Write the structure tokens for this entry.
Amino acid sequence: MAFSLKNTSRQFAFGLVALVAIAGFDVGSAKAVEVQEVVSKGGIKAWLIEDHLNPLLTIDFAFKGAGAATDPDGKLGRANMVSGLIDEGAGDMDSQTFRGLMENKSISLAYDAGRDDFTGSLVTLTRERPTAINLLKLSLTSPRFDDEAVERIRSQIVAGLKQEETDPGSMAQRAFFKSVFGEHPYARPVEGTFETVNGLKVADLRDFVKRSLARDNLVIGVAGDISAKELGPLLDEAFGGLPEKSRLPEIPAVTPKFGGDVKVISQDNPQSQAIWGQKGIARKDKDFYAAYVMNYILGGGGFSSRLTEEVREKRGLAYGVYSYLANLDQADFMMGGVATRNDAIGKSLSVIRDEWQKMQKDGITQDELDNAKSYLTGAFPLRFTSLGNLSGMLVGMQTEDLGIDFLDKRNDYVNAVSLQDVNRVASELMDPNHVTAIVVGKPEGKLTF
């Protein structure tokens, strides 16, 4: 669920098992990780990484195309609300019984709704696997949506919406998506609005489950203490009761519109927060990795990035500044953000624009490229320090159609990027004259990007 306001039993359970995951996992090399494709007798497919060092299993899964973009007009926030309720009682267990069993068995079961997909994650100790799989199955096929749970989660979402009304980051993000996506479903808030959330009925929630959660749009990643032979029957047990076909609306492709302007949302605050965006690059584009390396050097590399060096280290204008490549199913764009004093936001944006222009005009140096490659390839195996990271990556590899051998090839893709590749892509991709920026606060002076 978009707002993390539920009780802490989920956090307790995850914290307990995460300690086990981190304690003994081998992080030596991506190439040492074997990914297996497992297909159950019922035809349910999953990608698996076995690791028997610890008695722990993680299952991540996604229902593709079932995210908040499918929320009907007038029912915004439906997918998000379901994500908060689907594990609040199922089968013959009410919320207290269901979640009490999870806590007693140190089982973590969590759901979330993004713009594109509806996702879930299960973490369990091996000895509790039968109980965990049963809870997962019930949550997907027999959620209760009892009145008490519905009104409790609704009140939490409404409280979160109230907080967002005055949260600069949330205000900026909502305004940005509305500005660049217009009437497209991506422009709408995942969490919904006060009016739509308060208007959602139990029948709406059940309709979402009936239409959206099915085997044909299901993607599964599994990591941990289980063999391929054991996993097949488990997949049928957990997911076999789902409908064969989903019934989802088609979300059209969209080209975000970037106007080259700075929009200010006035808020009486000593700081201003800004986010900005411009055109991006598709994940499957042949030049994606060149753009990926370029962005690392520009603003994705933390203290190693140009933006941090120029905005924070040299001038002390802001504590943090960043940029990243954003990819949705139907749109690609590049974003960045910074927060600083009202009297420094104008200068910060000016410096950032200079770096945007410099990247477009001059590109990068060979030393920058070598350092970026060294970090990006060397740090990649560190993503394998927990089973949850691995099972989540397996889902991402499938939803992005990266191939089952991606973990073996990923560093080769990075190493294949040349200086000429990056500088060509920078000249074509960077577009400082068509950047949309949103500033929330009381900025002083002239703002340009």
User: Anything to note?
Assistant: Residues 4-28 have pLDDT under 50 and may be disordered. The two ends are 34 Å apart (CA to CA). The first strand starts at residue 36 and ends at 39. The domain at 9-239 is CATH 3.30.830.10 (Cytochrome Bc1 Complex; Chain A, domain 1).
